[in-house]
Design goal:
heterotetramer, A: 317 residues, alpha+beta, Butyryl-CoA Dehydrogenase, subunit A, domain 3, two-stranded antiparallel ribbon, B: 391 residues, Butyryl-CoA Dehydrogenase, subunit A, domain 2, 3 domains, 4-stranded mixed β-sheet, 13 helices, globular, plasmid (chains A, C), acyl-CoA dehydrogenase activity (chains A, C)
């Protein structure tokens, strides 16, 4: 058995992250995350972590996703700390003193980028990127310039195809497990975002009146909300199962992580689309509290890969 | 919410699974695997095997004379059971009549009916739906008028599964006209051999005749066959519907069928067909989610007792997944599923392409699962009102 | 321009077929079809037809599908007469004096049946089958035995892999156009069946009461019926377009036939499933007027091939 | 039902198409192709080009000073128009204000407003929706109280596309409280330069600001700007909604975008990806069906005049298909669509991967099409009541 938090500890952790996340909306959350020990919290104590394991990472990601913070916990709190565990840079990352991005091809576990530029994701201000080089080695390369923005405000880089930088010893071996944990955290993040969207939509259906009655009294609305609630429960069920399996070192863990992500994309896509449609015009606007979450889910699907890619990786895992 | 599964639980499940696999007759397994229709003897014969080890009334407490499993053990047992191609046991006695009689009946009724149910000596059917009251049970109109120490029953039930095989029916009947349609409904146990009962089979799309119409013409039922209080039957009926819903995910069975489809596809060299594979994997992931939702609900109800209306989610997704699987199987076999051989489906002749032949009938037959047991529309009504609070 | 019936003539034809079809329910309809000149009606007068063209064939197929007759007009009235046009056997077929089945591999336009048994479809009593042999030639082979039944009562054979029988000269060349016309007729047949199912379901929603009100007054039912009506219109639109394009010798005609079939399968599948579900228990029974049509649509999808197969053939056409 | 297309019709369409292709500025075409936001000048400049040949008010009769096309010619023109990456012309003047003024206004109003609309000298917006009345227009509350020869308008409109660019608004306002909410609504033309009007842009999910809130604070509108009869505005509004619905299939535009996606996919070497291809082909077939449904409705209305409520089907499917296409495009570009460059989208800087960059913003922006113009839910209500007769 690897690190596995007790249920009561997980609830305490979730509550403290939720408090932080509510306050950190609209700010750069990384200093606060570092201060609270939430970067690399899933690492063992020997590696400087809090033994929170995959379930702890999922709890952190869920609350960050729910609040729609300008962070990608699957990368900043999970993948980068796991891949750099035991290095000086890793220690700096966990302390909030260094910021490292991750390349798209690494997320795909595909060494070949065919000499083409590739994308990288991570915290604003990162100066280095973890990537897979042409030989499949994990490499830490300099980022070519300042970040650009994605539509939800998070950072993206376009990186020229260089095989420069330092090879991280043992990184490629650590990759499969680290990616599974990152994907589990990404799924948890999505469940947080879609859970908040669902609650906002349900509240709006109760309060908004049209044709002389609450929207929620129309049977078509009721049935659609039921289907959203089922989609949400499905995503939560698989996200939780993936994190528990990772902590239990269950041989199905990597498969479950892909399954959790497929379900997160499926449920999240439905909930995001319906949240906009059911909110009507308001849901189309920047001003709606739903907007950052709709964008977050839409962006993350492309960052971590869509359903079809992960159906294949599920079968291969 | 996670379930605590002890080593003893695992050992119990492993032993039960091994026992089931060893006992299931090969010819019966093949019938189930090939979607061949079962006879009453197929079903009761197998229930006899189960009952001999007290595995038939599997959900019953020790007090009821059952094995007294914990919810976790029960879940693990169902998983083992679903993994083998065994018939789904008739539930009307063990999961419906039995629990209601135990909960709301009197000692004489318990002593008279429960052992026979547990030991597979009586075959039961359920008299709920009527032509004018399918998903809307409150509007039922089959009447029971009191005459001395008998109720005289007149009216009609429909969609009565296996009424043509049944010894007993538990029925909801109207004993009074109440202010609300739910009032004045009573829960009656009716001996199917009583004069005045006519059973007419209804063939379904696939050619099978598991459903029936049951007509009551001045059928005299002794008052001692009333369960609980006269007029309180609606509450007992609802008790059962919630019970039923939980067990209707069919996840374990779907898991087995998924494996069979993968085997069939491998034999047909279709595992390099990405379109087919993606359909299969999508269903597999939906099934994983269903299994985990079931576990979560089990964990939540482990402390709190009976499952809440959230169980409607399991019924909805479980039946949708079962239909998706049967459709995938039909599309996999394609034209090979088109020969419809009644003799084969009745188990009277070997099929020339037996694996494929039942796929069409199975798909048509499975359309029922989103309709019965409270249609999926009714489940969504329950969820929107009782869970989401929308009205 | 090939044969193309005027709109008014098509309506007259449709009405007369409808009259016949209503009377022929539950009987062997082929003698009557032959008597009315509906077998091979799409052929030119020189070939013994009525110059009804693809639109006439579609009108015939629609009415047969609507009534759910024990015939497959796409095969019996269209494909076989077209492939045998100008032969003695063709004349006998049109006169109702001979019955010929069609192999599944011919419907797929795939010569290879890899030495495996294959299926054949056509009228009860057929003694010969049109098939593609291993070299791609059209061949008329003897049927090995009496027909078996499909679930909707129509005939099916399982044929051993023989390259016996007579080669039909020119048959392989005529095949692409004949198959497009057969597919167009199959789509028309399906629109007839799904149109009838839709009407029956709409009527039932109006009349059946539950929870104290007509089912059709529930908003979820209303929206589902709207979606069925749209699906029906889509199928009708493409089925009509395919037949017109065939008659106009439009180069897009073969593509449109595949498109019409894809749409027929998509709409027909939805309408059949919903007809059962919305009818509730009654819809599950043999006794329901919906039953033969639900089965017909389900069977025909497998006979003529499902969506994925025809998406590919659409692109290749 | 088939449409009769004459040789003259075809010649007209071919000539119009060639003219349009020759006139469309390359930089404007590129902006449209790359989903770059348009400026007011982009739009009005192009409308100027169209108006010079009387192709702007394309649906207008000769009597209104328009080109007087037959329905078939109009359809063929729209098909040619949709095939080029040209901006969708602003419809509020030509398709909405103009036809209502022509049908229900007086001669003075016709003379004053129609030529300016036709010749692209005035830019119009539509004052329908309100915060409390989106799809449910009958409950609108912006008031117009009569004071001498003016109406004094107070209240708020929302979702007003291009109000920040508009010279004029046509608005539904409440001039009286009627027994039914539809009564007491009037149709008013409001000069956007009138004191008391405040326009506040609303940014949509994609960062664009095409929608606005418009606030009215004691805004004085001369009574001669009332169209038709006071209190009869609801009828005029409905006249427009039906008009709008028919033109909202967007089939020609979707056909062009489908072609662009195929080109992009070919350039990316994705045409051997069966999963992608099947998605593309499914949408293509749905689009074919939409086109044929549009033709059938056109043929049916050729004799009968204006399109009926059946046109709601075109709106529903047309918008769903447009969204499916934009989603396919987003998934095709994947991570390449993730850079969000406001300067690029504003047309102020070249994009480094211009073809891909607009895909995310376009997808988010297109969520609106199933909401506006009568949400697709409202279209389904119309169809179920008016076409299916379910109530």
């Amino acid at each position: 058995m690897a690190a596995m938090m007790e249920k009561s500890d997980l609830e305490v952790l979730a509550r403290s992250v939720a408090r932080f996340a509510d306050e950190a909306k609209g700010t750069d959350p990384l200093p606060g995350l570092a201060e609270l020990g939430l970067i690399g919290a899933g690492l063992s104590e020997a590696q400087g972590g809090a033994e929170a394991g995959a379930q702890g990472e999922a709890a952190i990601a869920t609350e960050i996703g729910r609040a729609g913070l300008q962070a990608t916990p699957a990368l900043e709190c999970v993948l980068v700390p796991l891949l750099l565990a035991g290095t000086d840079l890793g220690t700096q990352v966990s302390a909030g003193a260094a910021r490292v991005a991750v390349s798209g091809n690494l997320l795909d576990a595909r060494p070949d980028h065919a000499g083409l530029p590739f994308t990288a994701f991570g915290p604003e201000g990162a100066t280095q990127v973890l990537m897979l080089d042409g030989s499949g080695a994990l490499r830490l390369a300099p980022l070519p310039g300042p970040a650009r923005q994605m539509i939800d405000g998070r950072a993206i880089w376009t990186v020229p195809p260089v095989d420069a930088g330092t090879v991280i010893a043992g990184g490629a071996e650590a990759l499969p497990l680290a990616l599974a944990r990152a994907l589990s955290a990404a799924a948890a993040d999505a469940t947080g975002a879609m859970g908040a969207l669902y609650e906002m939509t349900l509240a709006y259906m109760r309060e908004r009146r049209q044709f002389g009655q609450a929207l929620g009294s129309f049977q078509t609305i009721q049935f659609r909300m039921v289907d959203l609630s089922i989609a949400l429960e499905e995503a939560r069920a698989l996200s939780g199962a993936a994190a528990r399996a990772l902590d239990a070192q269950d041989p199905r863990a990597a498969q479950l992580a892909h399954a959790a992500w497929v379900q997160a994309v499926t449920s999240g896509g439905l909930i995001a689309r319906e949240a906009v449609q059911l909110h009507g015009g308001i849901g189309m606007t920047e001003e709606s509290a739903t907007a950052p979450l709709v964008k977050r889910l839409t962006v993350d699907e492309q960052v971590f890969g869509g359903v079809e890619a992960h159906l294949g990786r599920y079968r291969a895992a | 919410m996670t379930l605590t599964i002890t080593e003893a639980d695992r050992a119990f499940a492993a032993e039960a699974g091994a026992w089931l696999r060893a006992r299931l007759p090969a010819d019966l397994a093949q019938k189930v695997r090939q979607n061949i229709r079962l006879t009453r003897d197929d079903l009761t014969g197998w229930q006899e095997v189960l009952a001999a080890r007290n595995f038939y009334a599997i959900g019953w407490s020790r007090e009821m004379g059952g094995p007294g499993l914990t919810p976790v053990q029960r879940y693990l047992f169902e998983r083992e059971y679903g993994a083998i191609p065994a018939p789904h046991p008739c539930q009307f006695g063990i999961s419906m009549a039995g629990p209601v009689i135990h909960a709301f009946g009197n000692d004489a009724q318990r002593a008279r009916f429960l052992p026979d149910i547990r030991e597979n000596r009586t075959f039961w059917c359920q008299g709920y739906s009527e032509p004018g009251a399918g998903s809307d049970l409150a509007s039922l109109s089959t009447s029971a008028r009191r005459e001395g120490d008998h109720y005289v029953v007149n009216g009609q039930k429909i969609w009565t599964t296996w009424a043509h095989w049944a010894d007993w029916m538990f029925a909801l009947v109207r004993t009074a006209k109440g202010a609300r349609p739910q009032e004045g409904i009573s829960f009656l146990l009716i001996d199917m051999k009583t004069p005045g009962i006519t059973v007419r089979p209804i063939k379904t799309l696939d050619g099978e005749a598991e459903f029936n119409e049951v007509f009551f013409d001045e059928v005299r039922v002794p008052v001692e066959n009333l369960v609980g209080t006269e007029g309180a039957g609606w509450g007992y009926g609802k008790f059962l519907l919630e019970y039923e819903r939980f067990s209707m995910s069919g996840a374990a069975r779907s898991r087995r069928i998924l494996g069979e489809i993968r085997e069939d596809a491998a034999a047909m060299g279709r595992l390099d067909d990405i379109t087919f594979l993606n359909r299969l994997t999508r269903i597999e992931i939906a099934l994983l989610a269903l299994e985990e939702m079931e576990l979560a609900l089990l964990a939540a109800s482990e402390a709190g007792g009976k499952p809440g209306p959230e169980a409607s989610r399991l019924k909805i997704r479980g039946t949708e997944i079962a239909q998706d699987l049967s459709r995938l199987r039909l599309d996999l076999f394609g034209r090979r599923a088109l020969v419809h051989d009644e003799a084969f489906l009745e188990g009277e002749a070997p099929g020339e392409d037996a694996q494929a032949q039942g796929a069409m009938a199975a798909w048509l037959n499975l359309r029922k699962v989103t309709i019965w047991g409270g249609s999926n529309e009714v489940q969504r009504m329950i969820l929107s009102k009782q869970v989401l609070g929308l009205r």
